[in-house]
Amino acid sequence: MGTKEDVRSRLNIAEVIGEYVSLTPAGKGRMKGLCPFHKEKSPSFQVDTEQGYYYCFGCKAGGDIFSFVQQTENLSFGDSLRKLAEKAGVQVEAKYGEKSSRDLYDVNAFALSYFQEHLPGPALEYLRARGLTDATIAAFELGYAPEGWDGLVKRAKSRGITDRLLLEAGLTTENPESGRIYDRFRGRVMFPIRDHLGRLVGFGGRVLDDSKPKYLNTPDTEAFKKGELLYGLDKARSLISGAGTAGGGELIVVEGYMDVISLHQHGFTGAVASLGTALTAEHAMLLERLGAQKLTLMFDQDQAGLKATLSGLDQVLGAKFRVRATSVPSGKDPADALLAGDEAGIREALLGGLDEVHYRVQAALEKYDVGTTAGKRSILMELLPRMQNLDPLDEGAEQMRTIACHTLGIKPEALLEWIGSKAKRRTLTDTHMAGMSAHRGEEDRELSLLRQLLVDPSLLAKLDGSTPWRNESVRKVMLAALGQGVGGANADSILEIFRGQPEEQLLIRLMFEGRDTGAISRDTNQMYEQKVHGYAAAAVDDIQVSMSIDSMRAEVDLLKRQVAEAEAAEQLALLRQIGELQRAIEAEKRARRSTA
Fold first, then answer.
1. What is the pTM of this model?
2. pLDDT for residue 156
3. Phi, psi dihedral angles at 353 (to 5 degrees)
């Protein structure tokens, strides 16, 4: 039997780590690369090939060849030793305490053979009716647990497998009163569940009829941890590890075993499924270690599907991966869509969808009214968990803050101040919301414009009716004034429309502010009126130019954000639009200066 040192002596640490990290020379006996344990843009991870150790100057992770495999593969020391021993061609002895999991893998393999033996019959017909080929059925090792209480128990006894080991593997259940054990899985199609290393850790079983529960999984055991497993990851792993690809492929996360199998059969080999749970932080840690970069969540379009999608997004996934959410256009789940021949619909869904940030925002906007203060408050509170991470490496959080500011009309600095406050959940009052508004300046200009139009309603002719008013009261008054026509509108007629309404007090205030004659005599009143009307006309022009510049600046900001997210081919066109808008802004400024 070989030892740990025998394994170490036969392997080159740089070659082993090089299977996970792209390494380049960094001096005599040193290699460097991007750290696999944290996100970074400049390499701070180094490997000392002479000493046989690695160290990251960023996150401080370090160790030898065994600890590296432990961390990247999420393995125990014993399993990492066995994995490397197999690579080195060395046979090692299992230490005390490491045999339990190996026994569970072995008894699961025995059970799999039993289930596959009983597949021919109704279960096989069911799988074929679901569109699965015999090659796919064999590749996913599908089987059937026959009816009866102790078929597996009896077979195990004939092979010398103890009742205790069957219980530890979750293959049987014990009657607490009689102590008798019986088969857990009965009358079910059996889906073997392997971990990302391909080890057989448990099973999922589905009934052939409508009886409940529809699905039954192995309970948590020493080998089976439901919240850490993704069905199909052992097969999809090659897509993200670089085996046969460039690595970093996109995983498709779906809801069920049949969805995964059907997608793989049709060439979508990145499909995986959680085992009846939302995606967890443990899932995220595992996928990050394996090198996953992109995830697409493809769940049903119903409320349960939406809830499952948001539950997945509620974890740390958004901070670690580029995540998109989508669903099949037909409204079916992927397996049913493929059975109906809608492979094109699956491809359409995978090309479309929303990224994690926009999906969250859209879900919040569909629930609350963005036109009200209460709605804006609710949207902010719903988005807060995802946008409160101020880590500069979390691009999703920064993007969500940008979208929230643009959509809700909030000043970025005010949003950051609120997010950073310890009492943020208690201080989001109406006053606080008003103070966060980014549109105070624009709304002040709108009020100034309305004030000048009340002085001289004939200036309505300068408006084309397309201005997107931010102030709701101004919008209502402008629509009413334009509805009366340039010739028919005057301050009194406009005021009469809003008699007894909240806008009445605003109009009265603006009328007083616009015409303060003070102690002007009758002789000079006509001259005063001429000056007031002349000033009003100039002010309308100036205010409209300011509002136009504000609108173009906002469009420039939006295009700049789109450039950062666009493909290289699209960036040139967006940059041209930005250039045109900036030239238009400068032209507006020059025109205003020349008439001043």
1. 0.59
2. 94
3. 85, 175
